[in-house]
Amino acid sequence: HTSRLIWQSFGPADRRTDDLWVDLNTLHKSQVQIHGILSNTHRQAARIALSFDFPFYGHHLRQIIVATGGFIFMGDITHRMLTATQYIAPLMANFDPSFSKNSTVRYSDNGNLFVVQWDKVRLKDREAEGPFTFQAALHRNGTIVFNYKDIPVPVARINSTEHPVKVGLSDAFMAFLPSVQPSDTKQRTIYEYHRVEIDTTKIANRSAFEFTPLPTCLQHTSCDLCLTSNLTTGCGWCNTLQRCSDGIDRHRQEWLDYNCPEEVRYIFHLHNREMSNLQTGPPNHKGITENTAIIAGVVAALVLLVALTLLAVYYINTHPTVAPPFYLMQRRTNNYWPSMKFRNQGCQSSYAEVELGGHEKEGFIEAEQCC
Known about the structure:
Largest sheet: 7 strands, antiparallel
Oligomer: single chain
Helix content: 10-25%
Radius of gyration: 24 Å
Strand content: 25-35%
Subcellular location: Membrane
Order of helices and strands: EHEEEEEEEEEEEEHEEHHHHE
Protein name: PSI domain-containing protein
Mean pLDDT: 81
Keywords: Glycoprotein, Membrane, Signal, Transmembrane, Transmembrane helix
Organism: Dicentrarchus labrax
Number of strands: 16
Membrane topology: Single-pass type I membrane protein
């Protein structure tokens, strides 16, 4: 699942670099907002509403969370470890906009393009090394651009001990682990299913990266398009949810809860049979007999799969210390998604979300209280 987007890099000598940069200074003051809180604080994040639906890995988002640390959190559920996954990070690092009055976090939204710029921000406890100015641009069609104007220190030299240093994109889905006791609430675990990491040696003054999303299964709104479109591969149609998916997106838990993998196999089989009948013409009596046998075999296989699934669920619920089959399956295939274990990251990268009034918001979801 690596072909979810394509990207290009542009250096100082490329004309495209100048075209991609959005000069907020040339816009009317009414078109540019200076975020008062983010511009005067350290390790904080604030929610911003977009004026358009932004497609991120096929999911249309209307709200984002901008952080002082040079990144945007794109998740639906906020927690203190915003740096772990589900981010758009032109340059995630330990920036402290509160150091100087000249350091600001500015943004603009014209209905087709949202731009956030970390302007003249400095690294915490390394302020003498100079100010960084860079931006992330989110286009209505899903294109994402990272622009860099001033990078006084090579990114490889930025310390990641107290704060993660990342450049790229990431998304994840949330799944539930079985509870130890029936009365306990289910534990949420975040599985990162896709990440793009940029070669930081290419980041310099007047450089840029452009990410273009590829079509996703989620964009298909009918079974026919889902199964026949040449734009996507690996898609399956779940009639119960009326959704097209490859099963690896933010809706994965619901996809499994409604037994969509079995539906997909059955619908895919019927579709292939219909296509075969169209090519071979009306079946003869022998064909009907063979078809009946095939259908009977498929039904028997489905019954067996359902029985095995129920047994597996029962086993997990009665053996809570055993890892879920989904996780074990990914390990066996050497293609599993790493789960986000927040307690292992310490408190260095924790973020607090603030409202415009400056108060910390409630409702964070934390795997473990560590501070």
